[in-house]
Specification:
Blueprint: H1 18-21, H2 25-45, H3 59-74, H4 79-91, H5 99-108, H6 114-123, H7 128-142, H8 148-159, H9 163-176, H10 181-193, H11 197-204, H12 214-227, H13 231-243, H14 253-259, H15 265-278, H16 280-293, H17 298-310, H18 314-327, H19 332-342, H20 347-360, H21 365-377, H22 381-394, H23 399-416
Helix pairs in contact: 3-4, 4-5, 5-6, 6-7, 7-8, 8-9, 8-10, 9-10, 10-11, 11-12, 12-13, 15-16, 15-17, 16-17, 17-18, 18-19, 19-20, 20-21, 21-22, 22-23
Length: about 425
C-alpha cells in the first residue's frame, strides 16, 4: 500500500534563553491565552466540510467519503484531515468540491507544498494565472524535492507564452537533475515555440528512443521538418509516431498519493493502468485486491489478465480470461483477448475464441484479422482470405489485412504454377 506523505514541518526557531527570563507571570498568562485562542480559532472560523451528492455512487466510494469527512468534523483544525478530504474528492471524481478543503489545509499549514500544488494543477485549465501562482508557491515550499512542481510550472509557463520564465525553470531543473527527460523535452518545445529549428532538432535527437518521450518527440520533429521544407521526413516521423504506444506518464509523487485514495471500481481500474507502467508489482497487488472486492466484475478479471500477461504469466492471464467468460459469456473483449493468448500455440482453440467474439460483435475488425491468421495456420487459405476481406470491410485502412491477402494470393499463384524442369 502506498504510504501517505507526511506534511513538511518547518523547523522551530529557538531564541536566546535569556528572553524567557524577561517574562513575568502576567506576560506568561497573556502568552498562554493567546496560544489557546489561536488553537481554538480554526474550530470557530472554519466552515463545515462540503458533502457531495452520493446518490447512486459506488457504495465503497460513498462510505470512504463519509468516513474522511467525519475525520474533518472530529479534527476541524487539522490541516492533514482537510487536505486528505480534498485529495479524496480529487481521487473519486468530486473535483468541484476539492479546492475548498485543500485551500483550508493550505491556510492551516502554509508550509506544506502539497496543498498549493494540488490546488494549482487543476486550475491551469480554467484560470491559468491563479494556477501558475499556486505552482510557484509549491516550488518555493518544496525546494525542488521533489522536482515535479518546478517542471509542471515550467510546462504551464510554456503553455501560456511566458517563455523566458519557463526557460529559467527548465534550466534550473536540469541543473538540479542532469539528464531529466521532462526538462529536456520542455526545452525542445521552447526552441520550437521560438522557431529555433536547429536547436529544436538537436534537443529532440536524444529523446527519440526514451519510452517517456519518443512519441511526442517524433510529433514535434515532424513539425520542425515541415518548417524546414522537408515533407518526406515529416511524413516519416508522423507515421512512426502513429505506430508507437502513448508515452509513459511522468512520475509524480503528489498525484500518486491522490491516486492511492481512489475507491470504487472505475477509479481503481484507472489506478491499476497507471501503476502498470510505473510499478508492475504494485499494479498486480492492486488488481488482485480489486478481484477480492469485485469478484463478479468481468472488467476486473480482464484487467487482471492484462497485468499478468505483462508480467510474463500467460497461463495466469488465460485463467483470468476463462473466469471472465464464465461470468459473462457475452463479453466480446474477454473472448478476443483469450484468443490472442492462444493464437501462437493453439490456433484451433484461438479460432473458436475469435468466432465467439465476432458472433457477439460482428464489426470487431481485429477479431476477423486474427481469425484469418488462425485459419491460415490451420491450412484453410480460403477461409483466411474471407476473414481478411471481412477485416477490410470493418476497417478499410487496416493495411496488415491487405498485406495478408497479398501473401495468400502469392502462395496460391506459386501452388498453381507448373514446376520448372
Amino acid at each position: 500500500m502506498t504510504q501517505e506523505l507526511q506534511p513538511v514541518v518547518s523547523p522551530a526557531r529557538s531564541g536566546p534563553r535569556r528572553w524567557w527570563l524577561l517574562l513575568g507571570g502576567g506576560v506568561i498568562v497573556i502568552a498562554l491565552v493567546a496560544a489557546l485562542g489561536f488553537r481554538f480559532w480554526p474550530r470557530q472560523q472554519l466552515p463545515e466540510p462540503p458533502l457531495p451528492d452520493l446518490t447512486g455512487v459506488d457504495p465503497e466510494v460513498a462510505a470512504f467519503v463519509r468516513k474522511t469527512r467525519e475525520e474533518v468534523l472530529h479534527k476541524p483544525s487539522s490541516s492533514h484531515a482537510w487536505g486528505r478530504l480534498g485529495m479524496v474528492y480529487l481521487a473519486n471524481g468530486f473535483d468541484a468540491l476539492a479546492d475548498e478543503p485543500l485551500e483550508i489545509a493550505q491556510r492551516l499549514d502554509p508550509h506544506d507544498a502539497r496543498w498549493p500544488y494540488l490546488r494549482g494543477t487543476p486550475l491551469l485549465h480554467i484560470n491559468p494565472d491563479a494556477g501558475i501562482a499556486l505552482l510557484k508557491r509549491a516550488v518555493e515550499l518544496c525546494g525542488d524535492k521533489p522536482l515535479v512542481p518546478r517542471l509542471r510550472l515550467a510546462e504551464a509557463l510554456l503553455e501560456n507564452g511566458q517563455l523566458d520564465e519557463a526557460e529559467t525553470n527548465l534550466d534550473t531543473a536540469l541543473h538540479r537533475e542532469p539528464g531529466n527527460r521532462r526538462a529536456q523535452i520542455g526545452l525542445a518545445r521552447l526552441a520550437l515555440l521560438r522557431q529555433d529549428w536547429k536547436t529544436a532538432l538537436s534537443r529532440l535527437e536524444p529523446l527519440l528512443d526514451d519510452p517517456s518521450t519518443r512519441k511526442q518527440a517524433r510529433i514535434m520533429r515532424a513539425q520542425v521538418w515541415i518548417h524546414l521544407g522537408q515533407p518526406d521526413r515529416a511524413r516519416q516521423d508522423q507515421q512512426q509516431a502513429a505506430a508507437l504506444p502513448p508515452d509513459k506518464d511522468w512520475p509524480d509523487p503528489y498525484v500518486d498519493h491522490v491516486l492511492s485514495l481512489a475507491r470504487g471500481l472505475r477509479p481503481r481500474l484507472g489506478s491499476v493502468d497507471i501503476l502498470a507502467d510505473r510499478d508492475p508489482p504494485e499494479s498486480l497487488r492492486a488488481v488482485q485486491q480489486l478481484v477480492a472486492d469485485y469478484p463478479d466484475s468481468v472488467e476486473v478479471w480482464v484487467r487482471l489478465a492484462e497485468v499478468r500477461r505483462r508480467s510474463g504469466d500467460e497461463r495466469g492471464a488465460e485463467q483470468a480470461l476463462e473466469r471472465a467468460v464464465q461470468i459473462d459469456p457475452q463479453a466480446s473483449e474477454a473472448w478476443f483477448r483469450l484468443g490472442g493468448l492462444r493464437l501462437t500455440t493453439r490456433p484451433r482453440d484461438a479460432a473458436d475464441c475469435f468466432r465467439r467474439a465476432i458472433q457477439i460483435k460482428p464489426d470487431l475488425a481485429l477479431a476477423h484479422y486474427n481469425l484469418g491468421l488462425c485459419l491460415e495456420k490451420l491450412g484453410d487459405r480460403a477461409g483466411a482470405a474471407d476473414e481478411f476481406r471481412a477485416t477490410l470491410r470493418c476497417r478499410p485502412d487496416y493495411n496488415q489485412a491487405q498485406v495478408a491477402l497479398q501473401r495468400l494470393s502469392a502462395k496460391t499463384s506459386e501452388k498453381k504454377s507448373p514446376a520448372r524442369k
